[in-house]
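Morning run. Coffee first, then this:
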Amino acid sequence: MRNLSADTKDALTRDIPSEAHCRDALLSGLALYGSRSVRKGSYFITHRNAVARLFQKLSPRQARESFDKLRMTPGRRIAIPGANRERPRKPVRRCDRVMEARAAFLTCGSLSAGAQGYHLEFAPSDGELAQRLEWILRAVAGRPKKMKRGGRAVLYYKDFEAIVEFFGVIGAHSAVLQLEDIHALKETKNRIHRLVNTEAANLERVANAAAAQRETIEFLSSAHGLRHLSKALREIAELRLNYPDESLAELGRRCNPPISKPTVNSRLTALSRLARRLRGETAAR
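And here it is:
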């Protein structure tokens, strides 16, 4: 099964903004949320080759040459250009905020849509970044929820509509389509389960009712004799004994002439009333 989060990131890296200021905002966001300080300087580090290539494409020429593979891990690191080493001011343009939100997902975000439900989360490297990202997310999509994990702030969405809205805003249209497909499939399965459960419950009720009706008729047969019943009541009593698993509608079609389901129910109710009277007379003796 393909990784929805990884596929979404790879698709987003192929969508390069046409406006220069949007490209700058995307690069700034990648450096902001993907930077790690090491002994030799500040580096952009990622485990996705496609994200590393995007950062390299957006960086100035001199920064593109400092691209190397991390030891012992599948990650890549690229030296952050000097102009992007300081934390930038919050973007003014909405489109630049969208680019920063996209960068945050590419660097510290993850998406899952499994049996436990939908989950989109962001794990920035520190609390100050988490506060900034919360502001960005509220500005372009919905307000995220917050929690602590390992001492770090984590922002997340679990509501399907909020997640779809976020990916629609940042241009991850393939993710929106996949999520809609997953959601439709889950809804279909849930609806089928509900129908099956409802049908099973109905069958159980019908079986219990039929068993109670047979018990009543067997009591009448021994205590009163079916031959003493009226023709209509005797017919429905014999049909219930002969066809214990059939529904009221099916019994009604077997009558001569056929009768409706309410009429069948009315005759069985009359038999039940007679049995109660007989039980009362028997109990009084």
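Strands lie at 35-38, 41-46, 67-69, 76-79, 109-114, 117-122, 145-149, 152-157. Good start to the day.
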